[in-house]
Structures are given as C-alpha cells and as structure tokens.
Amino acid sequence: MSLRERLQTALKEAMKAKAADRLSTLRLINAAIKDRDIASRGEGGPEMVGDEAILAIMGKMVKQRHESARAYEEGGRLELAEKELAEISVIEDFLPRQLTAEEVEIAIKAAIAEAGATSIRDMGKVMAVLKGKYTGQMDFGTVGPKVKDLLA
What we know:
mainly alpha; 7 helices
C-alpha cells in the first residue's frame, strides 16, 4: 500500500471516529500533497508525486511544526505549542522510523564511501546519497554539519 493510500485510509478512519484533531492534520497533509501534485504538473512532471516526494513534504511539515512549537513555548503560548506537537505525532505516524545518532553516523560514513568523497567539495554528492536513501529518516539540517566535519 502506497503512502498516499495509507493517508487516505487514515483520513476515512478519522472521519468515522470523529477524531477532529487527527482529521484536521490529515487534511493539511493531503492539501500539501495536492499542492505539490499541481506544481509537478505545471513543471511537466508526473500527474501525482511519488512516496519520496510525500515523505519530503511530511518531513518539512514536521520541521515547521517543531519551529512553531518552540516559538510558542518561548512566547508562553503552551496550548498552541501542544497543538503543534500533537500534529507532529500524527504526521510521524506515516514517516519511517527516525535513525538514532549512531545509525546516522554509520549512514554518513557509508555515504562518504559510496560517493568517493575526499574533501568538503564533495559534500553535495554525499548529501545526495543520504537524501536518496534516508528521506524522512533523518534531519538533514543536523546531518549537514556532521558531514562537513567528517570531510574536513
């Protein structure tokens, strides 16, 4: 079952269960996917984006919500921060398991070897390998500096 089908099934289940918060988050995910589908068609791409693009969309959504929750907490708006964190948990239900710090380290070293990277100039190649294999499983914002350290 594709990720898109899993999302549709979850949406129907949330409607039946009258789970308003979960339903709202699932609708946001579907809206973001449909926006990406429309953009892809406009660029001459496929009618519907694949699972990799959907994982990237959901990863971006999680990152945005983490930032919002942090801002709400700093501003003393704990109820809004809790809402953002609840949305994160719904989105993460559909994302692959996040890699541990040790697994990320191993993946980075394997990607460096696979790309044949020898200097910081090869960082783009390493990041491309990582994004190809681990989309949705690691935060590339924190991985970038680690790759840079290992290549320096």
